[in-house]
Design a protein that fits this description.
The chain has 566 residues and is an alpha/beta fold. An 8-stranded mixed sheet has the order 7-6-5-3-2-1-20-21. Strands 8-9-10-11-12-19 form a 6-stranded mixed sheet. Strand 14, helix 6 and strand 15 form a beta-alpha-beta unit. Helix 4 packs across helix 5 and helix 12 packs antiparallel against helix 13. The chain starts with 13 loop residues before the first strand and ends with a strand. It binds zinc ion. The site of zinc ion has 4 residues, from loops.
């Protein structure tokens, strides 16, 4: 009998609650609740949007877990990318350090993240090491199994979460790599034998990639190797620090052709250290040199791997291109390789970066010219192929923007999947699964942004962000008035300070007229026999000045009247 999505009682059911990752790329975190037990999958962070000035990053909101900390049986981490582990230092501490479960690379990266965040905090970690995908775990009423997946980082693992009411299958991030002759490397069809109802939660970033590049991982490496061996000057490769497998390959190949490699970028060096320690990169330690030793080697004997292929202002590649790097200067005969895909939103910055680069260097290679990147994610066809292999009862596309999830839904429907058995969930939605079916509960849990700025977690809210937006758009205008509290008269001069609005010295007329209007506004509000509140006078000044400045300039700076009563 086919399983239907319909209602049932809430007792003894599995609840699936995504706290993040359903309406964005990043801050991935999902709760699984069964009776009194909770298992968490991933604790990711997200980089801020353009309209969140000054915010360092965003983490999942865990207010749903307040008071339920003791029910948390474990936190499974699918792999070591920041959108899966980046929030762990903050959230693990807030939750009283529940045990974390993952493979070696992932656990080592979390440990390093914790130490970076707060020295000594890694000793609080309780870890359960997944030695192989054959391992089995019991976490409260949950039975946890694992399966092999392919992704652009070592030790990514797929997770199976079994309960008496349903089996969740979650590959984390995944791709479906093929050999040059088109054979798939990993087969998922064994997952179709898991107990029903099977709920497939599938990372669907690739749902919109309907025309994937035909380049295989092997061809990409071949292209990189060719560039490395043929370079007549030094070769600079810009990539993501998370592309550990690729950087490892570059190191191993450089050694083979007798070149030295310098890594630049804090997180990149850290990631490669971990991979080396775990034995995932096999090389002599002399192959790796520091950037300050680059000058000791002939230019055609060095490879530089650095971060910043997305044009991030402070990252290494930008500093090299703008001549702000202490040790690396670009020459015409150097080779510069962009080995990363463009993150949507960064297009313009990268174009500017390339313009500057083409002025300095004759050999700039990027994926439009030669495929020197393959994505670590699936394509639309891969999603359909995986659905065919796993044959789930319910399909939940995850870890992508809403429109991608909707596209994944369409892909499933196109190969015969019933729409009522697909759930495109928002952050905070609660899906209840029972033997008889699954349904979305009407109420969502709170998943509002928790923003991290410097040492502050969650203390910057909408009000602060709105102020920052105004300040960044039109600047600020401060009016300081000393007021005789008895006579209600202005004492001395009115002081005007402008930041990011106008240059005071070039605008004396505007400033003087503003001062005159402030005088008048104070007179108007205080001339009556009443003794008005300071705030009342300030509000009045703000209104009068704001209106005047807008009439004169068509700009709306933040107007801040400050009255000091003497
Ligand atoms: Zn990933």
């Amino acid at each position: 009998m086919p399983i239907q999505a319909h209602s049932g009682s809430a007792k003894g059911s599995l609840r699936i609650i995504p706290l993040g990752g359903q309406e964005e790329v990043g801050r991935n975190m999902t709760l699984f609740e069964y009776g009194g037990d909770i298992v968490i999958l991933d604790m990711g962070m997200m980089f801020p949007e353009e309209d969140m000035p000054g915010i360092d990053y965003i983490i999942p909101n865990i207010s749903y877990l307040k008071g339920k900390e003791k029910n948390i049986r474990g936190v499974i981490l699918s792999h070591g990318h920041l959108d899966h582990i980046g929030a762990a230092p903050i959230l693990l501490r807030q939750l009283g350090y529940p045990p974390i479960i993952g493979r070696d690379m992932t656990l080592a990266m979390v440990k390093k993240k914790l130490e970076d965040f707060e020295k000594g905090s890694a000793q609080n970690l309780k870890t359960i090491r997944v030695k192989s995908v054959e391992d089995k775990l019991r976490l409260g009423k949950f039975e946890i199994d694992f399966f092999e997946v392919e992704h652009s980082i070592m030790d990514a693992v797929g997770v199976i979460i079994k309960t008496p009411d349903g089996t969740v299958i979650h590959p984390g991030d995944w791709t479906m790599e093929k050999t040059p002759d088109g054979k798939r490397l990993v087969d998922y069809s064994h997952l179709s034998k898991l107990p029903s109802p099977r709920i497939l939660m599938l990372e669907s970033l690739g749902a919109i990639v309907t025309n994937p590049s035909r380049t295989t991982e092997e061809e990409m490496y071949h292209n990189l190797e060719k560039l490395m061996s043929e370079a007549t000057g030094k070769i600079i490769i810009g990539t993501f620090s998370s592309q550990i497998r690729r950087i490892g390959h570059i190191l191993e190949y450089a050694e083979k052709i007798g070149k030295k490699v310098a890594l630049d970028g804090y997180s990149m060096k850290m990631n490669i250290d971990i991979a080396k320690e775990l034995g995932y990169i096999k090389m002599h330690k002399e192959t790796l040199i520091t950037v300050n030793d680059l000058h000791k080697y002939p230019e055609n004997k060095v490879v530089i791997v650095c971060t910043g292929a997305q044009g991030e202002g402070n990252a290494v590649l930008s500093r090299i291109i703008t001549d702000n790097h202490r040790f690396i200067k670009v020459k015409k005969n150097d080779t510069i390789v962009f080995s990363s895909s463009v993150i949507p939103g960064n297009e313009r910055t990268i174009q500017r970066l390339k313009d500057n680069l083409y002025r300095k260097c004759d050999n700039v290679i990027h994926s439009d010219i030669m495929d020197v990147h393959t994505s670590g994610h699936c394509s639309a066809m891969d999603i359909q192929e995986l659905l065919r292999q796993v044959r789930p009862d319910f399909f939940i596309p995850v870890y992508a923007n809403h429109y991608m999830l909707k596209e994944a839904e369409k892909l499933a429907v196109r190969i015969g999947f019933r729409k009522e058995n697909i759930f495109v969930m928002d952050n905070g939605h609660v899906l209840e699964v029972q033997k008889g079916g699954a349904k979305l509960l009407p109420k969502k849990v709170d998943t509002s942004y928790v923003m991290v700025d410097g040492l502050g977690v969650g203390d910057v809210g909408q009000v602060v962000i709105r102020d920052r937006q105004v300040l960044s758009a039109d600047g600020m205008f401060v009016i300081t008035v000393i007021l005789d509290s008895k006579k209600k008269e202005v004492v001395g001069n009115i002081q005007i300070t402008s930041r990011g609005f106008i240059y005071v010295k070039d605008n004396f007329d505007l400033i003087n007229e503003t001062k005159r209007r402030v005088q008048k506004a104070i007179k108007d509000t205080t001339s009556k026999k009443t003794s008005p509140e300071k705030k009342f006078i300030e509000d009045n000044i703000r209104e009068v000045v704001g209106l005047y400045l807008f009439q004169q300039t068509q700009r709306r700076p933040m107007v801040l009247p400050v009255i000091i009563e003497v």
